[in-house]
Amino acid sequence: MKHIWNSAKLISLLTLGSRLLGLARDILCAAIFGLSWMWDAFLLAWTLPNLFRRLFGEGAITSALLPLFQKKHQEHPKKGQQLVNLALSYMLSLLAKILFLLYLVVFAILLCGQLKEKYFYTILLLLILLPYLPLICLSAASGAILNALDHFLIPAFLPLFLNLFWIGGILSALWLVPEKSAQLLTIAFFLLAGGAGQLALSMWGLKKMNISWRWKNYTNSPEIEELRKKMFPVLLSGSVLQLNTMLDRVIAEAFVPGNGGVSALYFGNRMVQFPLAMIGIAIATAVFPSLSKSAQQKSPKQFQSLLTSALKMTSFIALPAAIGLFVLASPIIQALFERGAFLSHSTTRTAKVLAYYAPSVYFFCLIHVFSKAYYAQGDVRTPVKISLAMVGLNLCLNLILVLLLQESGLALSTSLTSCLHFLLLYLYSPHSISLWGPLLRQATIAALMGGILLALKQNLPIPIIWAVLTYVLAGVGVYFSLARIFLPKEWKELLSSFQK
Question: What is the CA 397 to chain-centroid distance, rounded?
Fold first, then answer.
């Protein structure tokens, strides 16, 4: 397991850098635009290309292409090279068709009649951002191949690379473009340039591994047929979180009065994405190649041991993160965002969203790891069925809870759905995984940590930024001190992963 945790550590460190840059980016955007119609418009336009990034980058391509490439590459490197040529050619053709259809839809909307200013800018931004879709999906395919070769550095660096372009776009817009609506267009062009840079970097990484991409006719290819059979069910299965996010934004725009509902959801969700990427996605990405190899070698005991260890470690880190976000939602949002156009009432709205989103951190981290276990064994039907059911449930809960709690109800719906999603993956798993004992002990010490943070939050009369740092350090200190006493096995495993 040591090499898995070392890989997860590398991914987490690079993800930490990316998330810190992303946090700086969001702080700038909050100060400039606040909870406004302009930022709502940008987020609605960014939702579609970002949806494809998440689906392909963190789901379908990696989960379907990685084990297939491993298999072919182990048979002979030339077979691996042939699969790369076929797969990337197929992906480019498929994405070009999708892009063409999306542009037809967008132009049809423009021809339908005069749009409100907010929706006109949404469409205009979408016209700029849509080409990001094929760029990032091809980058994700290249990253999956690099991961299969146990090269995690470049794929983990790509999000950080994009954030550099995004921040560059914000700063350039502030210095060169006086009007806020035009600033949004400038940021969109920088994002498109960042997508092109990501693709160039991932292709360079493949070349360093002696793999290059040349166009190859994929028609009637058995490899592409096998890839297609695995990719599209995984695409449906991995879509639950991303489809829920898209539905949240559309329903917030339609049902929450006034402006700012989409923006409040975004800023609250960004705080959730930070631990989700560093814990759930990092461990799932690191453990997936090993799970895939164990499944191919038909070693059920090793597979079960890997999965159990990954789930326990994920829970060990994700649980205190979720509780900390729930307890400290208001001071975190105030410290990070309350400045410029982001006023006190913006803090109140966004903090409620974050508090209701917080439980989903824990469950989605576990879901990411559990889903990889299904994919490694070639079982895509079970997670697909569960995911589709969860999308339907989330939609129903959204329509009920948005009327009661506005945008906060959408966040609560996501947390409730994620809990049931994890439970169903666990119940349908063919493996006997003994989780409940360790989870109960983890929950006990995490609850103690939460109680201490709650008491500390009421009695700390110092500036908010220092208060939040104090809360975080106190929470980490309390949880790991208790873990060292009551969870010695998880504690030792965590320490061993950070040894040289």
Answer: 22
CB 407 within 8 A of CB 419: no
Kindly tell me the burial class for residue 108, based on how many C-beta atoms sit within 10 Å of its own C-beta (0-12, 13-18, 19 or more): exposed
DSSP 169-195: HHHHHHHH--SHHHHHHHHHHHHHHHH
Rounded-to-integer distance, Cα 212 and Cα 88, Å:
11
The identity of residue 236, as a single letter, is L
Max intra-chain CA distance, the chain:
69
CB 344 within 8 A of CB 257: no
Q: Token digits for 136?
A: 């990032």
pTM summary value: 0.80
List CB contacts of 352: < 8 A, sequence separation 6 or more. 268, 329, 405, 407, 408, 411
Encoded tokens for 5? 């945790």
**Using CA atoms, how far apart are residues 485 and 500, in angstroms rounded to an integer?**
24
Distance CA 281, CA 161 (A): 18
Query: Is the torsion defined by CA of 198, 51, 369, 429 positive or negative?
Result: negative
- Token pair 């981290």 is found at 365
Whose CA is closest to 63, among 271, 219, 287, 260? 287
Question: One digit per residue, pLDDT tens: the chain, 500 residues?
Answer: 555 556 566 666 777 787 788 889 999 999 999 999 999 999 999 988 877 766 665 556 666 777 777 777 777 778 778 877 888 888 888 889 989 999 998 888 888 777 788 888 999 999 999 999 888 888 888 887 887 777 777 777 888 888 999 999 999 988 888 888 889 999 999 999 999 999 898 888 888 888 888 888 878 778 778 777 777 766 665 566 667 778 888 899 989 888 888 999 999 988 888 787 767 777 776 777 777 777 777 777 777 777 877 888 888 888 899 999 999 999 999 999 999 899 999 999 999 999 999 999 999 888 888 888 887 777 778 887 888 888 889 999 999 999 999 999 999 999 999 999 999 988 887 766 667 777 788 888 888 898 888 888 776 677 888 888 888 888 888 888 888 887 777 666 666 654 43
No. of helices (H) and no. of strands (E), the chain: 20, 0
